């Protein structure tokens, strides 16, 4: 992994910057400095120098499961609402219908080379899992649930321009979708992990704000809009 959580903040730090950080701390060895943490499981990470100057990386020094080690099923996938809320379902589906272009634009901003067919597949999976039926889900947060529903593969990307596989994970304390909104006003940390085959290449923390609703969305062709709405 090329980035980890900074020892003294919630931001990411690269391997190169961490080496400089250890020097600033007066440490002779990088692993003697305050530890970085994994963006997903929050456990301490070690550093390992690479064969070349720019391929050093962070790694887990244990055998405990973490999705950054290899692509794996997210614990919340396949979980439908325990007690579906009919009113919430109508409200959430209406929100998607009313804001489809804004949601499409937002997903484009956090999923490189997103193909419209992947968007349709996301909506199809959301329908299958009935993510709209969670009673306390704030509709504005739906894009940040949508991204967790499928794997984003290079072969499925727009013009095949995606070079890495992308998966989205919430921090490891989240085991069910309900846990995302138990505490009103708080939304758990969302990260995008980039894989090359089964090797983690990059980690990016995704902002989960709702400012996207204040912007003009990306226009959808009528044919694709109909395909999307057919999944609600």
Description:
With about 230 residues, this protein is of the alpha+beta class. The protein has 2 domains: about 5-60, no CATH class; about 85-230, no CATH class. The protein is about 25% helix and about 15% strand. It has 6 helices and 8 strands, in the order ββαβββααααβββα. The strands form 3 sheets. It has a 3-stranded antiparallel sheet, with no helix packed on it. A 3-stranded antiparallel sheet has the order 6-7-8, with no helix packed on it. A hairpin with a 6-residue loop joins β3 (about 35) and β4. The longest helix is centred in the middle third of the chain and has 14 residues, at about 115-130. The two termini are about 35 Å apart. The model has no long low-confidence stretch (mean pLDDT about 85).
Quick rundown:
The protein is of the alpha+beta class and 232 residues long.
Set out the fold topology.
Blueprint: E1 3-5, E2 12-14, H1 15-24, E3 36-37, E4 44-48, E5 57-59, H2 86-98, H3 100-110, H4 116-129, H5 142-146, E6 165-170, E7 190-196, E8 199-206, H6 222-229
Antiparallel strand pairs: 1-2, 3-4, 4-5, 6-7, 7-8
Strand order of the largest sheet: 3-4-5
Into which percent range does the helicity of residues fall? 25-40%
Strand content bin: 15-25%
> Judging from the principal axes of the Cα atoms, what is the shape?
elongated
**Strand elements, count:** 8
Which structural category fits the helices and strands?
alpha+beta
Global mean pLDDT: 87
The oligomerization state is single chain
Largest sheet properties: 3 strands, antiparallel
Q: What's the gyration radius in Å?
A: 19 Å
- Contiguous helical run count: 6
Q: What's the end-to-end separation, in Å?
A: 37 Å
Uncertain residue segments: none
H and E order: EEHEEEHHHHEEEH
